[in-house]
Amino acid sequence: MSSTTINIPPSTATVSVTAFDVAEDPSKIRVPAAFFQPVLPGHEILHLPIFAFLIEHTSTGRRVMFDLGARKDLENAAPAVGALFKSFPDVAMPIDRDIVEQLEDHGVALNSINAVIWSHAHFDHIGDVSKFPASTDVVYGAATVTDTCTVNPASVLLDSDFAGRKSVPIKFDESSLEIGGFKAHDFFGDGSLYVLDVPGHLKGHVCALARVTPDSFVFMGGDACHHAGMLRPTSTLHQRAPCPADILEATRHTVSAEHFTPLDAEGKFDLTARTTPLLDVLPGMMYEDPVATAASIALIGAFDASADVLVVLAHDWSLVPALGPFPTSLDAWKAKGSKKQVMWAFLEESNPAFVFSPKLTRPVS
């Protein structure tokens, strides 16, 4: 399945994409496994990366960020963020260097960032825009609720997120452009970067599709879903990018036959016969509209099945072993064969994102 199948308009204009992990050490991040089902014993707490992306327009040098990750000083975040941590004492999100520090350490001047695009208005994505100069615009889907905590105590947005800078809502209904079933906005006007309207997780949620070579793309998925197992497998993937034989055989023994079907004649999990993702959307607080979320995930599946598109979800820990250390350029992912490395890695028992068999804990002696 090529990029033409998902109706990406042809262009020779490109951008460069550098991925940062604001968490740096995902094992330190602790969040409840409230995104998907089933959740097997021992996997009630997830450890996750927090990806942010520097995007540079090749022909003009203009730079934008797609997401900023979490801020370092969460005690100075909106009161609703502190209330969230009090409600979920198991949650931990220690940030040693925020994206501003990571950018500066990477030699990127903040005054060179023309805009920050939020995938959505959650605290682990909006960062602290006030650290950027007033020349940096803040961009978001037009459906985003932009009331700050001064107006709405439940909001995670601060007045300082908008003060003194240009706010740019992307109005998808002003264009007829669609890519892969999603309404799209051509950010630079030359086909190098598209912002996509991807509903479900939160009002205004968007993803980004970056053309890093004329025929290869990075799909920055935000929180459209939170685990590779919510995307895979699908019947198309089995046809286009079949699971390597060693991983396929291992899943017969490592994936719980009690929790996952179908089973083969020996009662072992049969991945080749499974044509829907292993993990389902868990209705509840993490997805504002579970039905729209499921529909969006199904559409992203076409991008995921394309040999021309690398899908990078904001919290996909399965990617870290192959793509890290961070920051790292994603421009040459296709030439490096990165997609083949990461596509089925989430099913390897040694992968940090493996959640498909109960994790036994030793009793304290």
Automatic annotation (TrEMBL):
<dbReference type="Pfam" id="PF00753">
    <property type="entry name" value="Lactamase_B"/>
</dbReference>
<dbReference type="InterPro" id="IPR001279">
    <property type="entry name" value="Metallo-B-lactamas"/>
</dbReference>
<dbReference type="InterPro" id="IPR051013">
    <property type="entry name" value="MBL_superfamily_lactonases"/>
</dbReference>
<keyword id="KW-0862">Zinc</keyword>
<comment type="similarity">
    <text>Belongs to the metallo-beta-lactamase superfamily.</text>
</comment>
<keyword id="KW-0479">Metal-binding</keyword>
<dbReference type="InterPro" id="IPR036866">
    <property type="entry name" value="RibonucZ/Hydroxyglut_hydro"/>
</dbReference>
<dbReference type="GO" id="GO:0046872">
    <property type="term" value="F:metal ion binding"/>
</dbReference>
<keyword id="KW-0378">Hydrolase</keyword>
<feature type="domain" description="Metallo-beta-lactamase">
    <location>
        <begin position="49"/>
        <end position="285"/>
    </location>
</feature>
<dbReference type="GO" id="GO:0016787">
    <property type="term" value="F:hydrolase activity"/>
</dbReference>
<protein>
    <submittedName>
        <fullName>Beta-lactamase-like protein</fullName>
    </submittedName>
</protein>
